[in-house]
Amino acid sequence: MWDYSEKVMDHFRHPRNVGVIEDASGIGEVGSLACGDALKLTFKLGEDDRIADAKFQTFGCASAIASSSALTEMIKGMTVDEAERVTNQDIAEFLGGLPEQKMHCSVMGREALEQAIANYRGESPSKKMLAGEVVCNCFGITEDEVRRAIRENALTSIEQITHYTKAGGGCRQCHPQLAAILENEQANAATPALPADAAGRSGGRLTNLQKIRRIEEVMERDIRPQLRKDGGDIELIDVDGNRVLVALRGMCANCQVSQFTLKDVVEARLREYVTAELVVEEQS
Question: Please, how many CA atoms are within 13 Å of residue 208, restricted to the half-sphere of its CB?
Fold first, then answer.
């Protein structure tokens, strides 16, 4: 029997905001019935551009229901930008904690919120299009999802990866790949490519030379390997202030989702690891 907090049990027994908003501003759907967990999240903005209402429908365990219920309560009254900063750890803390074996439920809530916000902004409804290769075929979990969970939650074992993502919880054939990903992430954490004084982390300002070097480091470490898996590549052309000019090469050059690649892969990674003010543009 899981050791659930009183707040988890309250949101499970008396879930808030169950249903669907028909004229929703944003809609997010993640998971699948085949994998055992599925969640649909909808929200509606009020005249003040804050989330006036949020509802959910979920198929899953007590933790999935409680996490979804808690999330809808948390984001009411927030702006979209504020809601975008909600993490799976925030959801778990709101509930007074979740058993580690059920943390994937809070991750599913965060992913549904991200999908709903992307839908509201008119962006691609699914970031899995370019989220790296699938490493866990049982649950359809990608390499990038595993890496993100490791980084955001400081995971140190395959068992924890399973608790947070469900990867490796089926046939276990992906365990060697998960171990390799974990080892790689731990090596990166032990010798971080980006010093602690990075802009946006501690408030320090980067010189243009420092900025270029860090952009090159992130591209080499996190972006090029992902693009090369699909026969593509990227070249840094110039850095002008916070404008980063790049050229997509190989299969990426004529890809129909090249703009998605630039914004949701390249720009997102550079903003995360260098500075949040960067804007990536493709050289015409």
Answer: 7
Q: What share of the chain is helix, strand, coil (3-state, %, to 5)?
A: 45, 20, 35
CA distance 94 to 109: 13
Residue 133's CB is within 10 A of a number of other CB atoms, namely 11
For residue 122, give every residue at least 6 positions away whose Cβ sits within 8 Å of its Cβ, in sequence order, or none.
none
How many Cβ atoms from other residues are within 10 Å of residue 208's Cβ? 10
Angle between helices 158-165 and 143-153 (to 10 degrees): 100
Instruction: Give the Cα separation of 91 and 107 in Å (integer).
Output: 9
Tens-place pLDDT, residues 137-165: 878 888 888 988 898 888 999 999 999 99
pTM: 0.62
**238 to 198, 202, 261, 276: CA distances (angstroms):** 20, 25, 18, 18
Q: Comparing 46 with 34, which gets the higher pLDDT? A: 46
Q: Could you tell me the domains of the chain?
A: 6-120 (3.90.1010.10), 131-190 (1.10.10.1100), 208-282 (3.30.300.130)
CA distance 172 to 154: 22
Strand arrangement of the beta sheet that strand 243-250 belongs to = 232-240, 243-250, 279-282
134: enclosing H helix or E strand? strand 134-136
Structure tokens at 257: 């989702």
Q: Among 14-18, 35-39, 145-149, 262-266, which is the least confidently predicted range? A: 35-39
CB neighbour class for 176 (10 Å; exposed up to 12, middle 13-18, buried from 19): exposed
Residues recognised as catalytic: 35, 105
Beta strands in 137-278 (DSSP E): 141-142, 232-240, 243-250
